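A quick word before the example. In earlier lectures we treated sequence and structure as two separate objects. From today on, think of them as two lines of the same record. Here is Solute carrier family 15 member 1 written that way.
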Amino acid sequence: AGLSRALHCFGYPLSIAFIVVNEFCERFSYYGMRAVLVLYFKYFLRWDDNFSTAIYHTFVALCYLTPILGALIADSWLGKFKTIVSLSIVYTIGQAVMAVSSINDMTDHNRDGNPDNIAVHIALSMTGLILIALGTGGIKPCISAFGGDQFEDHQEKQRSRFFSIFYLSINAGSLISTVITPILRAQECGIHSKQQCYPLAFGVPAALMAVSLVVFIAGSGMYKKVQPQGNIMVRVFKCIGFAIKNRFRHRSKEYPKREHWLDWASEKYDKRLIAQTKMVLKVLFLYIPLPMFWALFDQQGSRWTLQATTMDGDFGAIQIQPDQMQTVNPILIIIMVPVVDAVIYPLIQKCKINFTPLRKITVGMFLAGLAFVAAALLQVQIDKTLPVFPASGQAQVKIINLGSSNAEVTFLPDLQNVTVLPMESCSQDVTQLRYIEDIQPNTVHMAWQIPQYFILTCAEVVFSVTGLEFSYSQAPSNMKSVLQAGWLLTVAVGNIIVLIVAGASKLSEQWAEYVLFAALLFAVCIIFAVMAYFYTYTDPNEVEAQLDEEEKKKQIKQDPDSYGKESEAVSRM
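And the structure line, produced from the sequence above:
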């Protein structure tokens, strides 16, 4: 009894405190590193904007592909606890490798401030990012479910509140790290030469990941550890595979058709699994257009951050770094979620508008398209203030005449003569300094990005939160993890779409690329709206109850005597 009191506090398992702190530190680590990543590619590794964007979205896609691997390892082999610990070690090593990769002095043998062997830094960076993707993605489907495992069946209220606190820790870690790591990056550090301090910007997230691991292991003795019971995803895939194979074997007209193609799995799999798989595939079919939303949403950390580098971050008392503008999203999320739930949705309901989950998702996609239209309009204004640099195959020559007379310059091969007028006479001692501005500073203020962030955050609130809620409401009780993996997969595919569209479009103007993405999302939004119109909502609990009733009737029919005796025993009790 004493041990039980020690493990509980105010009706909650004490073990969840370790899980919440672990999640805060892990999210700080991930989002802190990701906030400065695209600028690290651009300014440290010297990659151009397009290649930096491509590698950034490849990394994010990997982070959302690996949850499937993590779920398989946890459910089929190691269990959630060992999976989280093992992959957290991989994660911590990856963050440490990223910090080491950004140390300028490591290969700066001539001490000129530039790495002499950039290939070493690239190799270390890619190794670190792959390890991070394995770690963060692998533990993603495990940690929240592991927290839910700590509660007893009668603690539904406490479990629900835990998930609210858990979600808050995610946003708190994201918000704080996105503020802090750009400040660390902007500092100057180094042994031989002072450069932007990427080792510190990556090192602090690495340290937080190590703290996350230590905190999680510290609570080991308090955790309720559920043993792996086999992965339902494997059974679902086997059921689908067998149905396809069996249908192909019986494709001739002599075999009667079945109501649904999955019914061809009935020779091997029970009716319940087949019915549950049908419900899952019905929702997964609706997921097909959703990656386009994430293709736009995740460009906050790439294209929108690069856009901010061409803007003025002077907010009076503080100087905002380009990568700090990403904090607008988590700040607005914290404000908008309760406002939308407590004010907007009730108002819509009072107006007698049937704002179904699928309609909410459609509106979210439309708003994300509008956000990119706003980004395009802003980009047009920014382009007016940017200097005109030489295009491919061109060069720029600037000649300053410090003499007292005109200088004649001849350019080959056209023998074109240009007269360069003298500046003020330099024949005498300098008595006056003259300031010349070759390239004007950025004049469009970063605050003009706030409208597009606001629209995109509104889109996220009605799209992402509703999407998860809809998925859970339409999923059978034992297949919610399958739909969770499918939802995360849409994020991965969305980032792959960015790679494909940005690579294939060949647009020279950034505003045109924003318009292209917006147009694609509007088109996909229309397709999804049509799909949603024909979708019929189901109640998985009702379907499963009907299956239970059918199974019960089947048992009565097969063995009525045994059921009669069981009923008699129950009535006597």
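Notice the following. The beta strands are 8-9, 12-13, 188-189, 195-196, 407-411, 416-420. We will return to this example when we discuss secondary structure assignment.
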